[in-house]
Each structure stands twice: as structure tokens, then as C-alpha cells.
Amino acid sequence: MKHLLLILALFTSPLFAADTLLTAATGADESSSITLSGADTSGIAAHAFNKATLIIYAASGHTAAEYSDVQVSHDGGTTWADVYKDGVQIRLHSTNTVETVYGPGIYRVDKEATTNATGVFASHKNNP
Best exposed site among 1, 8, 101, 117 by fewest CB in 10 Å? Predict the structure, then answer.
């Protein structure tokens, strides 16, 4: 299974406009990585954002049983744990299409193969 890494590390100049496609809008497993504020990203290729938060969203495509998990690594990308907010796992699915990730840290979106085309995006427009 491929994974989408969200590596949150500080860079002085943003490389992208407001929204960035993290996975192409296909049903297959896909991966990409991005950085936000403060984490060590040595050895991990990534898109760079000069932001403390990042909005992750799926425009459409998840069916009722499909999801994309947001996960965090505390050991430089060797192991991963699910991320929770207010006791609930952060997961994109058919009825929850938007989540906010807070830096610093190394994150990924684990998007499994989906029945429909499902693009997962990062938005940093107007984020702190």
C-alpha cells in the first residue's frame, strides 16, 4: 500500500498556490509528501509550505465504506500512528471530507484504492 506523507517542517518560501493535488484523482493507491512547520525532513522528499496548519480535503469519490486516514510518525517516518482529535480518529470519508492538520510533525494521508476517482488535496490559503 502506498501512502501520502505529510511532513510538517518550516521553510521560508512557499512553493505552491492555494491548493495542491496530493494524489491524482484515480481509484489506485497513491503517495506524495508535503512539509509544514518545524519537523526534521532529512531524507524525505516533500512539497514545502510556509504554514503552521494545513487543510486536507477530498473533493469527492469516497463511497460509504472507503476512507483515507491521517497518520503521524514520531520517529522520522519509520512507524505510523493514527491521529485523533477530541477522541475521534481523523479520517476522510464520504461524510467527512475536510480535516485540519497542525504542525510541526511528520504526517501522511493513507489513501487506499477507491471505487471512484478520489483526489486528495492540501489547501493553505488563508491558513496561519
Answer: 1
Contact 5, 108 (CB under 8 A): yes
Backbone CA torsion sign across 28, 61, 68, 98: positive
pTM over 0.70: no
The residue ranges of every structural domain in the chain are 4-123
Q: Is the dihedral of CA 121, 125, 126, 128 positive or negative?
A: positive
d(CA 36, CA 39): 8
Cell of 49: 509550505
- CB 112: neighbour CB atoms within 10 A? 16
